[in-house]
Amino acid sequence: MTRGGDGWGEGYVTDIAYLPGYYPNQSPLHLHLACLLGGVAGIEITPETPLSYLELGCGHGFGALVLAASNPAWRVTGIDFNPAHIAAARDLAAEAGIANATFIEADLASLAGDPLVGDIPQADVATMHGLWSWVADPVRDGIVALLDRKVRPGGVVQMSYNALPGWQGAIGMQRLLRESGQRLAAQSDRQAEAGAELVRELAKANAAHLRDSGFVQSLVEHLGKSNSAYLAHEYMTAAWRPCFHADVVAALARAKLNWVASAQLVENFTPLMLGDEARKVLDRFDDPVMRELIKDMCVNRPLRQDVFIRGARRLSSADRDAALGEVMLALLCPPDKFAWELEAPSGRANLDRSFFGPIAEALAEGPRRVRDLLELPGLARRDNPGEVVGMLVGTQQAMRVLAPGCEPGPRVRRLNAAAARRFVRSDNLNNSMALATSGTGAPLSCPMLDLFVASQLQAGPAADTGAWADALGADHPEAERQRLREFIALLVAERAPIWRRLGALPAASGGPRPGEPVL
Ligand SMILES: C[S@@+](CC[C@H](N)C(=O)[O-])C[C@H]1O[C@@H](n2cnc3c(N)ncnc32)[C@H](O)[C@@H]1O
User: Fold this and answer.
1) For residues 223 and 17, what is the distance between their CA atoms, to the nearest angstrom?
2) Is residue 86 within 8 Å of residue 80, measured between CB atoms?
3) Which residue among 3, 6, 10, 12 is best mutated to probe the pocket of ligand 1, counting the most ligand atoms within 8 A of its Cβ?
4) If DSSP states are collapsed to H, E and C, what string results for 332-379?
5) Which tens digits make up the pLDDT trace of 329-384?
6) How far is CA 225 from CA 84, 220, 427, in A?
């Protein structure tokens, strides 16, 4: 029996590299919104702020690098114990010429007590995506000790993790997958595939545990579509266990961190989370831990995206609204594709057209501050900047920017081209990636396919969408290639104008600058 690793990972998968990815909920600009919605002052960020950003368990470092490329004044540090990840991150940084990102190979279990820790700057913002619920107690203790030493007073911490009770019904599925996979003498990706195969087989055989919960069914379905490296990191780790929010809060309190809000902005609007009866129960409690436990019981969310702060400075409603009014938003969809309905845990909700219609129209012309949007003629209400930010950003139809986009600088162009060259494959076109941008401070979150199309537009002035689809889908049947052609043409028509407006692509036609690599 093998452990699916090289023996130094304390049960974490180390023989297979993870996937590159970008998660907008880790962006400091976005986390500031979560803090304001949670009623506390976050980190004020201007284009000149020399923000210090720390990512723990950074994998390939792609997320850290797009943030660094989009924010030349920031100092970005990524830490991971897998040397393959750190080497890949450093290579990509060197190729793109990004000097404000540093990648450190270190084990989080012991880093806080290591002399190396002195080289890490005090963090304004520290983030972890997909780490906490996958690592053993000594690593969790090490993370808390590191946050205690390295997050500055007033600093913000974001952490996503598999949550209880949401995951409770699927623990057996994970155990079956891992237990059977690790009996195969093979690398952990092959082990995960074998384990997933057994889970699917047993699900078809009507196993009650795999049949009776909608959540388990959705996971089983997802297994069949997932990349094997993802499956290995997700399921083959010995220490994996989902956590109650209350336990995470207690652990982070040792680093003087207080829970503030969810980075999933819509989750901060209780009427969208709970029905009337459940809200009556919730309203009996003012303790945030009890309130979150009640929400988790009602909503059963399997992944939590918690935001903490080291030293909460509570804002009055007036100060909170004034700070939200200063937020600049950029529209991320063509106005005619704006979605007026959202699926919320408490049911389907509508965005009021008489209110959001003029706002979406104004944003279609370019980024605007929330306070200016609330002064648009004809709005029935003008007193709710939190709703504007929460609904527009929470539905991913807008994002916060520091300023309108400008012509992409060489680092941005090089990173976008290099990332496309390294990562795009015909079987990973839906992976969560991003385009680095100039001027806005905010990378543009997008699927891998967008990264490919944007890099092609950047490389040459003529858009030959058919040829791009044929090159990308060479191994696919003609019907799929035709779908890809149509989809790429749609991206060029609908998304490229947004990429140009928000500093990811030159405003006019592309084409490499002298001395710049092309794809
Ligand atoms: C599931 S991956 C997530 C990577 C990245 N944050 C993302 O979401 O794409 C977890 C990462 O944590 C790293 N990791 C696990 N245990 C660690 C430890 N003890 N010290 C440092 N890094 C660790 C792994 O190498 C891996 O890159």
Assistant:
1) 18
2) yes
3) 12
4) CCCHHHCCCEEEECCEEEECCHHHHHHHHHHHHCCCEEHHHHCCCCCC
5) 999 999 899 999 999 999 999 999 999 999 999 999 999 999 999 999 989 888 89
6) 25, 10, 10
